[in-house]
Each structure stands twice: as structure tokens, then as C-alpha cells.
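Q: Give me a protein?
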Amino acid sequence: MTEQDGLDVVPKDLNPTQQAAIEENSARSGHATNVARSESWPPRTTLGSHVKRAERARWGFNTPTQVLTLATGVQVVAQRLTAPEGAARARRVRTAVTILGAAGIPVPDLLGCEVIDGEGRLLFRYVPGTGGAELVDDPVEGLTLASLMGAILMALRRVRADALAPNRAWSSAARLAAASVGWQAAAPADLLEAVQRAVAKTVAADWRPTASHGDFVPANVLVADGRIAAVLDLSDVSAGHPLLDAAWWGLIVRYHHPRRAQELLQRLLATGGLGATERSAQALACVASVRALELLAATRPGPARVHAQLLLQAALRWLESGWQSGRLTDQFG
């Protein structure tokens, strides 16, 4: 039983030969050209063409993502956003592609978007490039990546936040304080006091929501020819805390690439217009700690929850150490 949600997107123009092949195959098969109608995963047909090959993408770690090669020679990327949040996430992606793209932020063209039995099914034009996570450890490419992603942070601040759905928990200090009460139940007893300090410092000053990617990490960009070719994983784009993206980037890089973290974060902050100072490091560490707490509270028991707890521990160590020492000041205006 298939339930359509009316999220279909008119495909972007392909080159004339590819478009003609798609339209011809669509006419033969009776499939719409803008969505993947097959209920199987990965889809067997899409854009009116048979799928010759399906390969797992090198990105999309938390979202099933396949690179599809069609009989027409076109390559596309298919993503499945699982229920129960699939429909809402699909809508956020559709909005993000429009709003971020209009702001000059490179995002993949969205060719199709639908909901089947509560799952979001997305179809993007394939964008060639190297995943940012593959570049972090390179002495030169890592710094270039940090600069490029800092420029994306700068561009995000120019996006109209009121055009995006709010991240309610992170939309104000009062809401974050209220939400964090429930999250703290997930914290291990030996971390609870440190968690409470991080929450208290984060909500001590209010902020004006800005556009936020929601999972802004090196793995979620593709780089080609010395530029960001595409920002990926747009299902969490919303209006929220102005330091949330930089804080999460810093934590993930510290966790996976500790030897390079300080140098890379300083570059990200400098090019992102946030200021690479001791005070900003403390502010970021506080926000990262609260975000890691939120992730832990939302994660079911198992390997993912163990990983979330390790991230929380890493964030709290960052908060304790900073770059030297210091206190949180008003970084959120």
C-alpha cells in the first residue's frame, strides 16, 4: 500500500540527450519522470529509466544512500529517510535545497521527493567530488577544507532564518534549558555535574536564531577543483543556535582527528567570521556538550549510544581544557 504525500519535485534540466532519453523511457513505461515509484530499495526504475547499477554512496552514513547508474547513462543519488520522521525530514530537505541554493550555497539538485508509507524518498542529481572527511588529515587539503567550510558558515548566516523551520529546542535559551532537563536523564552519573555546568553556561545568554545545517561536519561536503561542490545531508537544516554548526564541526574533528583539531578549528572560525579565541573555544565546547547530550538522549541502546556517550565525554574534556583556560562570555548575540 503506497501513500503519496504530494512532495513531487519537477526535475532540473539535464542535457538535451539525457532528457530526451528519460522522456522516451518514461513514455514507454508510464512512470513519472520526477520520482522513484518503486517501493523496493534501492529502486529498480527511476526517472523513467531502468537502474543498471546501484552502489552504496561513500557518504550518507546515517541515511541509506545509493548512487544509481541508469540505462540512459545518467547518474543520480537516491536517499531513503525512514519513518516516523521521514515525511518531515523530506519537507526540510525540499525547503533547504530551495533556500540555501538561492543564497548561493552549493547543494545538489533535487530531482524527486515523495513519501511512501511514512518514508521520505529523495532523488538528487549526482555530484562528483571527494568527501571532506577524506581530506582532513592532509596537511594542505585539511586547511583548505576548513577554509571552505568556514565560508559556508559565513554564507549560512546570510540566509533568512525565518524562511526555515525552527529547531525548537535550540531556538532560545529558555527552550533549550527546558529541553535539557529531560536530556540530562541520559547522562551517566559521573558526567552529570559537568553536563549541568555546560547547560547553565550555554543558556546564560539568549541568542537570535540563525540558519543551521544541523550536522555540519567534513563528511557532509563534497570538494572538487578546490571548492565545495555540494553540501550534503540537508534533512536537519533549520533555524537555531548561531554556534551550533561550528561547535559540532569542532567536536567531530577533535574526536576523529585530535592532532589536527586545534589548527583546523582555528582556520574554520577565522574564515567563518567567528573569531578563533579562547573565549570562543569555550563557548563552542559548551554548545557541543549540550548537543552531544541531546544526541545521547535520542539514541537507543547499542553501538550508536556508546558512540554518543563517547562524543559527550570528548565534548566535556574540550570544555575543561579549552585552548588554555577561560570562561564563557556572550558569544550569542
